[in-house]
Amino acid sequence: MSSPWNSSPYRRQMDEERAHGDDLSPFDSDDSGLFHIPAKKAPIEKLKRWRQAALVLNASRRFRYTLDLKKEEEKEQIRRKIRAHAQAIRAALLFKAAGEGKVPGPPQEVTRPVPDGYGIGPDELVAMSRDHNLPALQAHGGVKGLANLLKTNLEKGLGEDESEILHRRKAFGENTYPKKKGRNFFIFLWEASKDLTLIILMVAAAVSLGMGIKTEGIKEGWYDGGSIALAVIIVILVTGISDYKQSLRFQDLNDEKRNIRIEVIRGGRRLHISIFDIVVGDVVPLKIGDQVPSDGVLIVGHSLAIDESSMTGESKTVHKDQRDPFMMSGCKVVDGYGSILVTAVGLNTEWGLLMASISEDSGEETPLQVRLNGVATLIGAIGISVAVLVLGILLVRYFTGNTKDPGGAVQFIKGKTKTSTILDDCVKIFAIAVTIVVVAVPEGLPLAVTLTLAYSMRKMMADKALVRRLSACETMGSATTICSDKTGTLTLNQMTVVEAFVGGAMVHPPENTEKMSPKVASLITEGIAQNTTGSVFIPEGGRAPDVTGSPTERAILSWGLQLRMDFDVLRSISSVLHVFTFNSEKKRGGVAIKLSESEVHIHWKGAAEIILASCTQWLDKDGVEHRMDGDKIAEFQKAIDEMAAASLRCVAFAYRVCNVEGVPQGEEELEQWAMPEDDLVLLAIVGIKDPCRPGVIEAVRLCQRAGVKVRMVTGDNIQTAKAIALESGILDTGMPCEPPYIIEGKAFRSYDEKGREQIAPKITVMGRSSPNDKLLLVQALRKRGHVVAVTGDGTNDAPALHEADIGLSMGIQGTEVAKESSDIIILDDNFSSVVKVVRWGRSVYANIQKFIQFQLTVNVAALVINFVAAVSSGNVPLNVVQLLWVNLIMDTLGALALATEPPTDHLMVRAPVGRREPLITNVMWRNLTGQALYQVAVLLILHFDGTSILRLKSRPRAEADKVKNTVIFNAFVFCQVFNEFNARKPDELNIFEGVLKNKLFMGIVSFTVVLQILIIEVLGKFTSTVRLSWYYWLICLAIGLLRFVKRVKLPLLFEKNNMKFILPAMTSNERSRMYVCKS
């Protein structure tokens, strides 16, 4: 049954917007808008356009976390120089050798002495690796001779003695490169002080300070100018501290991204260590998708192909063998497997030099950040217009004699007022106008995105998700579908062989060798030992064997050990001639091994039904071969289906004998040899159990409740996929189980493009899919308007991960190629962690909306109050210092309080956030308008009639005005404090839910209240306020609290009548369910 979420309101909305794109303003979210960029692969022209259109007061701060276009160009130039340098050295070496009629040998002299205990020094190793000097390597006796010089055992690797590792690190260097130092705290202070309005205010403060001291003396005259200067300094300090702490968070996350885990052989065991712990002499196994962690020399390789484009700039695959054994750090393995001997690390490699040159992160802008720049530009333009109007009105009123001082006297009398007094008064008026600009231009609004992303990314690390690309956090909140792998994501990846079909019959238990002849067991274990990328280490003392490799390989090797397989002996008595690496397209892998001078065995292993289709014979329990007839094929197929229906992964083993004469003899011919794939003899079929992860059913249900369709895309048998889908809750008994809801990859790819687009939204399970099928599904869903998240772990998943709106790679089983193509790495490979990423994605968007609502309320209220007061009375109730304090509350402190709210369950009972949904929703407009109107009305009433309302008529005018303005300022601040609580839950009634758990929010609110009390009661000289009695304090608190009562009634009426505006994609049933969830 198709979910109501699968109909595509997003597509309809997108089509409508495109149809009317010409009528959109520059601030709309359509692709053609100035302030819209795609989440991935944004064109440079679009990045330049929005920068040029933005209204910015402090460019260095506003653009700090955006992509530095100039630096990107510099990086590319550095890359080209290093590549050209390396290629020039090699070309020169070959040219010189050819001119002298001899081949280059090992260098005759080295600049550094050979380290104690070794037969070769770092300089000679570096020169040989850098120049790809094969004659030099051969002069040392090849890789074996080089290993002897480096005191390395090519089979067992280095020892596990830490002192030996430290000695090598000291002798040959570390596998690290110097990182450019991050900016220190004072640079952030300097950047915060470069705000144009703050600079103008500092100038105004200096003029006011000078004039005040001149006219009133230093004891009293410094207060006005000094107060402004002190307020500006505090704003700069708080902003600098916030920005600095934010940068440290990003720095920690960047360090985590670089810390790749790689496999090495030490003491005969395969260990996983940090890439930074590699040393010269290490033996490093490599397989498809790995990154080469250092420069090295190939020890052994099977069909090993390397992508060297990261170093050479040429997107050409290079096959590695003994004729070209040199490996460059930073390159990727695209096919085959093998192992290398490490010869150079860190800055002794070209990759290290490249990374040291461009290691500084240049930032990245996100779509939401750019949209907020558009909002800030629009609001800023309005604010500047209001500030100019206020400046003009105040100046006109001043010079026409309509402005009075606190004592009631006219401030300007033509021909009588001193020039110094006029200058001082004009400076104060100008400072007020500039401060209105400070408050009106929401400079911190776009930066709030970065703040919430930094916070979310740090918290997501604790939830086992490492964000590689900032915009993925935002986009995940809009995800409408997740295309998930089965193995390791929905299941535990803890595989064991639980069933075996050998010799034409089921074997119970699967390791029961009594039901197999020695010949059958021998052939099975021979295939297991040789046709694998895993390994078995037998420790001393009779301890359990250490089995390494992929989960499937570990399960099969463990079964082989139960069949009494001697891994090392089997690998030593035969030699590998050729390897066909397991291919996710063909779903099988093979190996050709030479047993004697005349006999070669070719072993295949892979998807059971695919191997079965290639078999023409089968081996019975006594080791006798029989022809494969129709009845026997049906019997084997039935066994496969029964295993698959029990949620088992089915793997078959087959082999064939080949004469030596039929195998190419030369290395070059062997590389091109296509191993025979037909006329195979079936040896065994096994069923591998991989249990569903605990909690996966609840995670899937949570997604479905949140309007996110979960689809399983797996390479496993369609019956296995269906069984796991039922077990995990992706399918239920009420859903249709026929095509296209459950479909095989080959059936899906057989449709044309339009056909795939039609059926893609209906697909729930896709079995026997190839990576290309996954890519086609992602493309079809995106064309239907879906926001697609896709999981992947293999190298061949890279195109789908790159194409999807959000690519999620697996941290444990994922290859480096997959991780580099992804946006987020799921560190524990768990589907529940994927769901947590969805929560955080929605939280990012929700937190930004909270902050927008809060900040715009302050913007509107402050602008209207000052504008109306200036026009009507010539005085503004909020002075420069007070406005700067309000700006601090709404900007830096407000962002810290609201942009760091943790996600709540309420986020997962709403529809996904539409990518083109307006930033300011109807609910936000309701809250914003209500709050702003309330604050403006109450405070303007106090401004115009506060003397009588506050019972101040009996006091002198100057004192009454000071008390009245203090009450207005204090009430305004408390309105913002209580408004922060309102903004926490824009569309919920219980605004206090979970507030005590958010210590940062409570800390900032408490800090604001305490500082406000100090400002009123202690720092009155600086802020032009007076101390208030408890009566006036209660009035201020009551004004702020009154809005809570309003929040109880307004939302109910608005939400029930206008739910379609809040949740445009919801059906009536879903809306009803949301009300139930709320209540």
Structural account:
By secondary structure, this protein is of the alpha/beta class. It has five domains: 119-175 and 276-358, Calcium-transporting ATPase, cytoplasmic transduction domain A (Distorted Sandwich), CATH 2.70.150; 177-260, no CATH class; 366-454 and 841-1055, Calcium-transporting ATPase, transmembrane domain (Up-down Bundle); 465-491 and 693-829, Rossmann fold (3-Layer(aba) Sandwich), CATH 3.40.50; 496-683, Calcium-transporting ATPase, cytoplasmic domain N (3-Layer(aba) Sandwich). The chain has 38 helices and 26 strands. The strands form five sheets. Strands 10, 11, 14, 15, 16, 17, 18, 19 and 20 form a nine-stranded mixed beta sheet that branches. The protein has an eight-stranded mixed beta sheet with strand order 8-26-25-24-9-21-23-22, sandwiched between helices. Strands 3, 4, 5, 6 and 7 form a five-stranded antiparallel beta sheet that branches. Helix 30 (816-821) links the parallel strand 25 and strand 26 (824-826). It is found in: Endomembrane system; Membrane. Residues 12-23 have a biased composition (Basic and acidic residues). Residues 1-10 have a biased composition (Polar residues).
